[in-house]
Write a structure and sequence with these properties.
The chain is mainly α. Helix content is 71%, strand content 0%. The termini are far apart. 27% of the residues are buried.
Length: 248
């Protein structure tokens, strides 16, 4: 494998002096980290190596990323941005909320199937314990992570609103958790057991998403048939599941 290029124009580059320059420099560090990660997918990139290949001093890099964990979370944000952009393109122009839900989650699965190393880095990377305190402030302000979550929440919320039902925020979050975990399992399980043979990921994704659509549609029909509140709570949904279980 060809070694990554190292900037050698001077011993070390000078630090960025403007906000635009700082943003560009931060992005250079992220791109260098991604290149190192691609070359060695099983380990987080060394900060000193990132500094070396960008031509900046380690102290300049530490102004942006104090630990490897912080750099990895920045890289994860980029991967999440790409996944959302991919899914948004798939649902563009589709007005039917049910179809948007189906197409959106199927697209997310397809993106990660096509980018398995990125999936591992986003959903499997764990910071060392000693990095935990340094990462916590970063996680509270990661717009890309919030945007990725918001995209999934909006697909679920729009589905229910299309049917004139407005679940509580807690219930919407629970529904979103369930479909995100289930659809990501379509990617994670085959990656974790490569010796097993599974049916095509598109089939598993469509089956999984359709199961949620069917289940939620049954819940909506139950609400309307029994003239229950159109603003169900998480507790009321659990009661519904208990009722369905007794009747089955």
């Amino acid at each position: 494998m060809n070694p990554l290029p190292v900037a050698r124009t001077r011993k070390f580059q000078t630090k960025a002096k403007t906000l635009d320059g700082q943003a560009q420099l931060r992005q250079r560090f992220v791109e260098a980290g991604k290149a190192l990660l691609k070359a060695s997918p099983d380990s987080a990139p060394s900060l000193r190596k990132v500094a070396e290949i960008t031509g900046y001093s380690p102290s300049a890099l530490y102004r942006y990323f104090a630990t490897k964990a912080e750099l990895m979370y920045a890289i994860r944000e980029e991967f999440l941005d790409r996944s959302v952009t991919y899914a948004q393109a798939r649902i563009q122009g589709e007005q039917n909320a049910t179809q948007r839900l189906r197409l959106g989650f199927e697209a997310l699965v397809q993106f990660w199937v096509e980018n398995p190393d990125d999936f591992r880095h986003v959903y499997s990377y764990r910071a060392r314990d000693e990095d935990g305190d340094a990462v916590k402030p970063v996680l509270r302000d990661q717009s890309s992570i919030q945007a990725a979550r918001g995209f999934s929440v909006s697909l679920v919320r729009d589905f229910f609103q299309h049917h004139d039902v407005e679940p509580s925020d807690e219930l919407i979050q629970q529904f979103t958790d369930a479909i995100v975990v289930a659809t990501h399992g379509v990617v994670a399980v085959p990656l974790g057991s490569p010796s097993m043979r599974y049916c095509p990921s598109e089939v598993m994704a469509r089956t999984t998403v359709q199961a949620f659509i069917g289940s939620w549609t049954d819940f909506i029909d139950f609400i309307k048939a029994h003239r229950l509140t159109r603003r169900p709570t998480a507790e009321q949904f659990l009661n519904y599941l208990d009722t369905v279980t007794r009747l089955s």
